[in-house]
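Input/output pair, single chain:
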Amino acid sequence: MSAPPSARGGDTPVPVVGPSICFNPSGGQECPPHAYRGRLAPSPTGHLHFGHARTFWSAQLRAREAGGTLILRNEDLDRQRCKPEFVTAMLEDLRWFGFDWQEGPDIGGPHAPYTQSERMRLYRAAFEQLRAAGFLYPCTCSRQDVLRALQAPHQGEDEPIYPGTCRKVTSEEWQVAGDARPAPAENLSPVTRHLSPSWRFHVPDGRAITFNDGHLGPQSFTAGKDFGDFIVWRNDDLPAYQLACVVDDAAMGVTEVVRGADLLASTARQLLLFEALGFAAPAFFHCPLMTDEHGVRLAKRHDALSLRTLWERGATPAELRAAW
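Output:
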């Protein structure tokens, strides 16, 4: 396996611990033997819909059944789509539906702040730790570049498997500045020289990542086959979802992540980050996705099924929950 160019100026092999990695906290069906801490983690990029509510309700029930704590985290890193009015609507709609969190952006708590845009210091520290350990390399490929290299323009909504184009760029070609932004060498193309890079996590090709999902049972993903090198720091100087999520779940002491099944593949990536950063991984519980009458997964564009619209039409939370 080729090593990524070291961010420190030399070629450093990617740290690898064994041929496979298995995460199985308390058998996978129960959380680690300490106080249960669950979380709701919506993004204020639109109004929450009925599918969000069902998944979040599962998270709340599991926290209540365990006598634990439920955290609300405002994942607002998308500068283009996140809006203050959606944050206000998110809090109002969740309260209306019957959610009751014990820590969050509106009430505070021991792990404040609970808004991601206010937690950049933590993400930068994690990025620097990964970079110094040789897990990351800079990449100037766009999503279109990746798809063209794979000759597969229809890969679905998940991140396409990266073909490793920028793995081949040597540390001499990338001279990393102190502010974590690389300065490309003059022998790169004019286009590449003027692009700010993203930073990718170099996955250990062929390594099996296995875990026991609390709802879906045993899961296994092979690095380099089921997923490739993934972005942890974006070229607009923001952490990618995978890194921010891991840092926050660890810092907030989350013991179980309850979320939709569309994020199942992300779990393997995040488990590698938990390990690389030296964090204990939580348990995972992935819920089935809700679909519309045509079998299409609900999204925020389904305004007719947004909690705000249902509320305005006179629906009650009890009636809506009964429909599950």
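The longest helix spans residues 50-65. The longest strand covers residues 208-213.
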